[in-house]
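$ run holo --ligand "flavin-adenine dinucleotide" --emit C-alpha cells
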Amino acid sequence: MTKTINNVVIAGGGTAGWMAAAAFTKLLGNNVSVTLVESDDIGTVGVGEATIPPIKTFHKLLGINEQELMRATQATFKLGIQFENWGQQGDSYIHSFGVTGKECWAGEFHHFWLHGLRKGICAEFGEYCYELQAAKANKFALSNTTPINYAYHLDASLYAKFLRSFSENLGATRIEGKINSVNKHNDTGDIASLTLDSGQTIEGDFFIDCTGFKGLLIEQALHTGFDDWSHYLPCDSAVAVQTKSVSAPIPYTRSIARNSGWQWKIPLQSRVGNGLVFCSKYCSDEEAISTLMANIDGEALTEPRVIKFNTGKRRKGWNKNCVALGLSSGFIEPLESTSIHLIMSGIIRLLRLFPFEGIEPSAVAEYNSKSDSELNAVRDFIVLHYKATQRNDSEFWQHCKNMEVPPSLSHKIKLFKETGRVFLDDGDIFRVDSWTQVMLGQGIMPSQYHKIANIMSDQELHNFMQSIKSSIANAVEKLPSHAEFIQHYCKSQDASLSENQLDAKYEVES
Ligand code: FAD
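-- output --
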C-alpha cells in the first residue's frame, strides 16, 4: 500500500485535461484538490469536434445544461456519419446512432430484414431506422414521445474553454506555464513533481497526463512503451482547415473516402470543420492539402494545418502514479469520433477505481485491462471500414483490401458473412446495430440468417416491416428542420444561421 492521494495534478489543458478537471472537481468534491498546468504557448491539437451519444451521460453526471453547452460551443446535433465512396466509388450509407427495426429474443431485426429481402418484401435497411431517416431528411427535434439518439458536433477549443470555467468555478486551480521537467521519487520511480520554465515546482500525489501526443509524463518520464497499430490502420497524417458555412448545418458528419484516405466535414453553427486523414506512404502533404482545398465548400477561415500521428496505444494507460488520458494514452484515427469518448470512459473508470487510500496493483491491473479491451474493440471497428472495401482504384485501397486484420475482427466478419450473426466483445462501445449497419453498408451480405424470421407468414412480415417503416416516415415528416430546431433551442450568438435557412415554424416541446 502506498500513500494516500490528496493532490491530483493534471498536466495539459486540451479537451482531455479540462474534461478530467471538470469530472474530478464535480464528482470527487473535497476528497482531492485539483491543479491543472497548461501552456498557451504550446496550445492544443485544435481538432476533435465530432462526438458519440454517451457524451450526454458525461454531461448529465456533471450537471451540465445542454442548451448552455450547445450555445457556448457552437454545437449542432449529430445523428450519425454518412460514409461516401467507402464500399465502392459512388456508394453512400449512414451509420446512425439509432436502433434499426425491432429486436426479438432470438435474433436481431436484420434477420427478419434478410428474410424479407429474399422474398422481395423489404425496403433498404436504413428505412427502418428513425435517426437515419431524420438525418437524411435534415431534420431534428427532442421529444418525450419519440426519443431520438444523438450526439454533438462542437468547437473543440470552445468546449475546453467551457469546461475550464466550469472546473475553475468548482475550485480547480489553473497554472499557466511550460513544463520543463518531470521529477521522480528516487526510491519508487513515481512522479513527484513538475518543474515549469519559470522555476515553479508543482508537487502532487497523483498525475494525469493530458499533454497530447508527446506523453510528457507517461512516456518521456515513465517510459511506458507504445503498441504500434499502423499495420492495421495505415493513415498517419491529417490536414485540417475551417471554412465558412454556405448552407444550414446538416445533423450528421460526412466521411468521404478519397484516393489515399478520407475527408471529414463537420458542420457547426458558426462554421464547418474540414480535414483529410491520409497515409503518407501514398500521398504527400502537398497533395493532401490540394485534395482537401479542392473539396471544401465555403471560403477557408484558417490556413490548412498538417498533423502527424502514430496509431496505437500506450502499453499501460495507468503506470505508477500516473494515468494518461486523451492523445497521450494513444490514438485511433477519428473515423468514428471515438477519442473524446475514450477520454470520458477513462475518466469514469479512474473515478470508480480512484486510489484514495493508496495505489493498489489490483486497481491498476483492472484499469489497464478494461482500457485495453475497449481500445481493441474500437480498433477493430475502425479497421472494418478499411478492410471491407471493394475499391481497387488506388494503391492505398488495394493495400487496405488485402491487409491482414486482427484475428478478432476476421472472426467477426466471417461470422457475419457465413451466419448473419454479430456478437459483441468485451469492451465493445458500438452496438450490434452499428456493426450491422457498417457491414451491410460496405457490401458484406450474409449468406444465412436466423430462422426465427420464418415464424411470420409473408403477409405478417410485410405488415411488420411496413408498420415500422411508415411510423418512422410519419414521425420524420412531423420534425422541424435541424437548423430550425437549433434556432429555437440553442442558437449561439455567433451562429451563421440565417432566417432564410429556416423553413417552418416550430415550438420546442416542453
Ligand atoms: P491536446 O489538445 O494536444 O492538448 C495537450 C495540452 O497539453 C495542451 O493544453 C498543451 O498546452 C499542454 N502541454 C503540452 N506540453 C506541455 C508542456 N510542456 N507544458 C505545459 N503544457 C503542455 N476526437 C473525437 O472524439 N472526435 C473527432 O472528431 C476527432 N477528430 C480528430 C481529428 C484529428 C486529425 C486528430 C489528430 C484528432 C481528432 N480527435 C477527435 C481526437 C481529439 O482531438 C483529442 O482526443 C482531444 O482533442 C484531446 O486532446 P488532448 O487534450 O489529449 O491533447
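-- notes --
The pocket of flavin-adenine dinucleotide is lined by residues 12-17, 37-39, 42-45, 47-51, 156, 178-179, 210-212, 216, 238, 240, 275, 307, 309, 326-328, 334, 337, 339-340 (CB under 6 Å).
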